[in-house]
Write a structure and sequence with these properties.
The complex is a heterodimer of chains A (about 350) and B (about 290).
Chain A lengths: L2 H21 L8 E10 L18 E6 L2 E6 L4 E6 L3 E4 L4 E4 L6 E4 L5 E5 L3 E6 L2 E6 L4 E5 L5 E6 L4 E6 L4 E5 L3 E5 L5 E6 L8 E6 L5 E6 L4 E9 L2 E10 L9 E3 L6 E5 L2 E5 L7 E4 L3 E8 L4 E8 L2 E7 L5 E8 L4 E6 L2 E6 L2 E9 L1
Antiparallel strand pairs in A: 1-31, 2-3, 3-4, 5-6, 6-7, 7-8, 9-10, 10-11, 11-12, 13-14, 14-15, 15-16, 17-18, 18-19, 19-20, 21-22, 22-23, 23-24, 25-26, 26-27, 27-28, 29-30, 30-31
Chain B lengths: L1 H21 L10 E3 L13 E4 L4 E2 L5 E7 L13 E7 L3 E10 L1 H4 L5 E2 L6 E3 L9 E8 L4 E3 L15 E9 L2 E4 L9 E12 L8 E2 L3 E6 L2 E7 L2 E5 L2 E5 L4 E2 H4 L6 E9 L2 E10 L5 E10 L1
Antiparallel strand pairs in B: 1-2, 2-9, 3-8, 4-5, 4-7, 5-6, 6-8, 6-9, 9-10, 10-17, 11-12, 11-13, 13-14, 13-20, 15-16, 15-21, 17-18, 18-19, 21-22
The chains are: A mainly beta (about 350), B mainly beta (about 290).
């Protein structure tokens, strides 16, 4: 009889212990802190500061939030704002605001001054500081620059389904399961037919910043992936893997710049795939992945996920541990971008800059 | 009497069956065609046919599996001027692409992957680089690696108007002679060009579009012929084939619907130069030019 309270006490202790472990898993070793830098409304008046040539060299950040494009100074002052015609390409050096059927693309600098004109029909986009134009029927691609030059232009006579750029190389995946790697002048440096299967569409193509690693996801039932590494003799397959997904749309993914592992949107979350199988990590997520980006903080990947009631910003460590950062309630356009040690979040007409710190 | 009845039953079966075999593909929407395959496009050949229709349900040309789709503005997608589109695989070789759509929920949520002829892929829309609500339809032969003229696969379209041939001219590096001409033409090599187009009946305004076949005859001998059957990549260049394997710049001038109909060697004498254009419905237009060469 006297033992009973003692036994219950032990049971309660173990329950608390299990609950604690579940709620507070193994710590990162450091605590992740989000430090609010500033908040700005996209409707704020344009700052008259920074109109001089001296401050035109100041670091600025371009944003595209819904139907507004603009530029913010490092201190968060709105230095330029313009309404989007149909869509826009925004880089920190300039932007292209284009109509649905553009005959020419007009390039402007962050203060809205004319820079150049690109005589090409298609929609512009950026990959790792390089600019491209996807030609009208999606079967051709051109590399361009803000100075209005067309560096190369190619017609492939088949639909481009994915692409990525590295330092000088450009990897393109097609709807017939072909992967093409182009050099700096648009010349073919590597080509492989990944699948003879009629369902062998290339859904994701990715390159590391230095062109050293290349990865793809292709096919259906099952969806598969391949990693290549550049060697003195050319690109060599280093890994083939299978995924649990069966997406029939473009898949999100990138190479983690720190660990050089391939981060892929999977059916149940995120798959992080390395050259060796032992490096693989699976991160289960219930929400649909909106944007994946890397953050230059201690091997942290940033994700923006979307569920019915809103969005979440979360981090994933190289070990696959999830770190909740921010919840955004409601719907509406979102702009999400990370840079050295911080990220920008644009939502509901406000732009917020956070510094991410591990202490 | 019985033999006669049997003959008519068999004949009707043949007509009914033959029709089903020949036209196993269906139009995704009512064919009010605005532009045709391999006509001069924004930056090269048009690889699709453009059909005009307001807020109309789009159905597959044949039963097929959804293998790729893209929603306009999706963060994972490239910025396609095709807007929102879906790609279906039919058997092992044929693929169809439906562009500028408002995609159906069943496509966007991947609720189903196999689409029957009666299923809806989406509605005609104005997504991407589209100036008029409608649909762009592409068909691709995966085995031959070429885009195929969708009009070769789909049931015939009613069309009674003949193509138009106008402003034909003989061109040399430093000289242009408009045809017809009463003046004698200097002998030698001349390039023949002409504006060749068909008029769309889909819109009440003047709406030129491409033709299916163009030929050039010199004194009754065929010197040039092109049919818009397929578009294939040969040596890094997209060419209209199988006729001549002509690249875009070899077939079209930058100016409107002006076509380059080949180079002919004109010898002294009276010559007959004839341009013949045919649309896909079989309506033909002949234009004969008679002139003296010295």
């Amino acid at each position: 009889m006297n033992d009973k309270p003692h036994r219950y006490g032990l049971l309660i202790f173990f329950m608390i212990l299990v609950g604690y472990i579940a709620l507070f898993p193994i710590p990162l070793g450091k605590e992740l802190l989000l430090v609010l830098q500033w908040i700005r409304s996209v409707d704020d008046p344009i700052s008259t500061l920074g109109q001089s040539s001296q401050s035109s060299k100041e670091k600025v950040t371009g944003f595209l939030l819904g139907k507004t494009i603009g530029y913010l100074s490092e201190a968060g002052d709105l230095i330029y704002r313009e309404s989007v015609l149909y869509s826009a390409l925004v880089t920190d050096r300039g932007f292209i605001n284009y109509s649905a059927i553009p005959k020419t693309l007009v390039v402007k600098d962050p203060r809205g001054n004319f820079l150049s004109t690109l005589r090409i029909e298609g929609y512009p986009f950026a990959r790792k500081n390089r600019l491209f134009v996807l030609l009208t029927d999606g079967c051709g691609l051109a590399e361009v620059n803000l100075e209005g030059e067309i560096l190369w232009k190619k017609d492939f006579n088949q639909l481009i389904t994915s692409m990525d750029a590295g330092a000088t190389a450009t990897a393109i995946g097609f709807w017939d399961g072909t992967l093409l790697l182009l050099g700096s002048k648009g010349e073919v440096v590597f080509q492989e037919k990944l699948s003879q299967d009629p369902y062998g569409v290339v859904y994701l193509t990715s390159l590391t910043k230095d062109d050293r690693m290349m990865g793809v996801v292709f096919g259906l039932n099952p969806q598969r992936g391949i990693l290549w590494e550049r060697t003195p003799g050319g690109y060599k397959r280093v890994r083939s893997f299978q995924l649990s997904s069966n997406f029939r749309r473009p898949i999100q993914g990138l190479f983690d710049p720190k660990t050089e592992r391939f981060v892929i949107e999977d059916a149940e979350g995120i798959s992080i795939v390395g050259k060796a199988k032992e490096e693989d990590v699976r991160v289960p997520l219930k929400d649909r992945i909106g944007t994946i980006t890397s953050c230059s903080i201690d091997k942290l990947l940033l994700l923006c996920t979307q569920q019915s009631e809103g969005r979440k910003v979360m981090g994933i460590t190289d070990k696959g541990k999830r770190v909740f950062l921010k919840s955004l309630v409601g719907e509406g356009p979102l702009w999400f971008q990370s840079e050295e040690g911080s990220f920008f979040l644009g939502f509901k007409k406000r732009i917020i800059k956070y510094r991410v710190m591990l202490e | 009497m019985r033999k006669r009845q049997l003959f008519w039953v068999l004949a009707l079966l043949c007509i009914w069956g033959g029709d089903r075999i020949a036209w196993s593909y269906q139009w995704p929407i009512e064919p009010r065609i605005l532009s045709v395959f391999a006509q001069g496009g924004a930056d090269g050949f048009e690889r699709s046919i453009r059909i005009s229709a307001n807020n109309t349900e789009v159905k597959p040309i044949e039963e097929g599996e959804l293998i790729f789709f893209c929603s306009e503005g999706s963060p994972s997608s490239l910025p396609y001027p095709l807007g929102s589109f879906a790609v279906l695989q039919h058997g092992r070789t044929l693929r169809s692409l439906y562009a500028h759509l408002e995609l159906s929920d069943s496509v966007q949520r991947m609720e189903k992957t196999n689409y029957q002829k009666g299923d809806v892929i989406g509605k005609t829309g104005l997504t991407g680089a589209s100036s008029m609500v409608g649909l762009s339809l592409f068909t691709y032969d995966l085995e031959a690696k070429q885009f195929v003229n969708p009009l070769l696969l789909l049931p015939p379209v009613k069309d009674t108007s003949r193509p138009i041939i106008r402003n034909a001219q003989l061109e040399k590096k430093d000289r242009i002679i408009p045809l017809p001409t009463a003046e004698p033409v200097p002998k030698g090599m001349w390039e023949v060009t002409a504006e060749v187009f068909d008029l769309s009946s889909a819109v009440p305004t003047f709406w030129p579009m491409g033709v299916y076949k163009v030929s050039l005859y010199l004194n009754g001998q065929e010197r040039f012929m092109v049919t818009m059957d397929t578009l294939k990549e040969q040596g890094g260049v997209t060419r209209v084939s199988p006729s001549e394997g002509l690249a875009y710049d070899q077939l079209y001038s930058k100016e409107g619907f002006r076509m380059k109909l080949g180079t002919v060697n004109l010898n002294p004498g009276v010559l007959n130069l004839e341009i013949v254009a045919r649309d896909f419905a079989g309506n033909e237009k002949n234009q004969l030019y008679r002139f003296r060469v010295e």
